[in-house]
Amino acid sequence: MLSLLSSLLCVTLLGLRAGAFPIDDFSVTSQKFLSSAVPDGFSINLDEERLVQFSDDEPPVWMTEREKIRAKALGRKFFDITDTPLSKLAPAPLAASRAYPKLNKQDLVHPVLANLTVDGMITNLQKFTSFRTRYYRSDTGKASQQWLVQRIGEITEEYASTSLAALITVTEFTHPWGQNSIILRIKGASEEATAENGTVLIGAHQDSANMIPFLPAPGADDDGSGSVTILEAYRGLLASNYTPVQDVEFHWYSAEEGGLLGSQAVASAYAQRSVNIHSMVQLDMTAWVKKGTREEIGIVIDYVDADLTAFMRTLIDAYCSIPSVDTKCGYACSDHASWSKAGYRSAFAIESTFDNSDKNIHSTNDRLDISPEFDFNHMLEFSKLSVGYIIETAGWAK
Ligand code: BES
Ligand code: ZN
C-alpha cells in the first residue's frame, strides 16, 4: 500500500510530461515490478540512494534507484552524478577556439564511402538485439558487451593489414556495475599532432533498457543502431587501409540509460588525465524514418558545441545523400552531454527531428523488424557521416 501511495505521489510530483506515456499503466505495472524481488540475472539495489541532477539551475537531489527509474519513465532526463560529482571534474584541456577548416579531403573520403554496406550492420544488429536486454546491471548486458568486444576483434582481424593492426588497441573501461564501456583506439601516425590537436572521438551507447528494466529490451534503434553504425564506419576504414594522423577513438558506452553513467566516468577520467580531445561526435538512434516524412539527418543544437555542429552540417552536405535538419533533445539527453559537461566539444546526429523519431524505444517493440520505417539504408548515411568526420578531422597519413 505504502509503495502504491508513493508511486502515485511520484506520478503527481514528477508527471511533468503527462501524456508522454499512459501514467496509470506505469503506476500499476511499475508497482508490480519495482516492489517485488529483483529477478535473477539482475544486480540492482532498488533502495540504493543516488545523487541525480535534473537541470543546471537546480541542485542535485538524492533519491533511491527505484525513484530514479520512475522519474525516467515519466520522461525526465538527468545525469546520475553519484560517482562523478562536479567537484571531481577537472577542467578539460582545450586548445583555444578551433575554427573548422573547409573540407579538403574529398578525394580520400569518397573511396571509403564506396566500401560501406548494410550487410554487416544487419547481421551485427540481429545478434546484438538477440540478447534479452542489454541493461547495464544485467547478466545479458554483460554478455552483449563481451560479444561486442569479440566482434570488434574479428573485424580487426579480418580487415586490418598487419601494419594497421599494430596500431589498434581495444580496452574495457571498467565500471562497478558489470557492463564495461569499450574503447577502441587507432593510434595516429603523429604523436605531436595528437598532442597538439587532440584525439578524434566518435561514440554510441551499447546498453538498452526497457522502461521497466527487468522486461526485455531489444534496443534495436536505441542505441543498437548507433552502435553498429560506427562499427561499420570502423570496418570501412580498415578495409581502405586507413591510418590517421591524429589518434582516433571509437567508444561504446555502458549505462547511458542509467543517467549517462558510462560516458560521465570516461569523460571525467579523460579530463583528470588532461587528455586533449579534438571533438566528440555521438550517434544515438540512426535507423528510423517516419512514414510520410522526408528522410533527413537530425542535428541536435542544444547542449552541444556550435562550431562543431556547424562543421557536422558541412560534412552532411558533402558526404550524405540526404539533408540535415536542426532539432533539440533537452538536458542530459544522451552521452554527448557528458563530454560537454566535462568541458569538451561535442555534437550529436540523430535519425530525424525529435518529433519524428522512433516512439518504440524503451519497450519490447524496439525491434529491427517492427516496421519498414526501421531502415538500414538510413543508418548507412550515418556511417558515411562518421567516416567523413574521422578522415577530415584526424587526417590520413599516406
Ligand atoms: N536515445 C535516447 C534519447 C532520445 C530519446 C533521443 C528520444 C531522441 C528521441 C536516450 O537513450 C535516452 O533514453 N535518454 C534518456 C535520458 C537518460 C539520461 C536517462 C531519456 O531520454 O529518457
Ligand atoms: Zn534510451
TrEMBL record:
* Peptidase M28 domain span: 182-372
- Pfam families referenced in this protein's UniProt entry, alphabetically: Peptidase_M28
- Has UniProt tagged this entry with the keyword RNA-binding? no
Which EC number(s) does UniProt give? Answer: 3.4.-.-
Instruction: Write out the entry's keywords from A to Z.
Output: Aminopeptidase, Hydrolase, Metal-binding, Protease, Signal, Zinc
Q: Domain of life of the organism in this record?
A: Eukaryota
Q: Which cofactors are reported in the record for this sequence?
A: Zn(2+)
Q: What class of enzyme is it?
A: hydrolase
> Would you indicate the residue range of the signal peptide?
1-20
Q: Which InterPro entries match?
A: M28_fam, Peptidase_M28
One BP annotation, GO:
proteolysis
GO MF annotation: an example: metalloexopeptidase activity
Query: Is the Transcription regulation keyword given for this protein?
Result: no
Sequence similarity:
Belongs to the peptidase M28 family. M28E subfamily.
User: Could you tell me what this protein is called?
Assistant: Peptide hydrolase
What species is given as this protein's source? Calocera viscosa (strain TUFC12733)
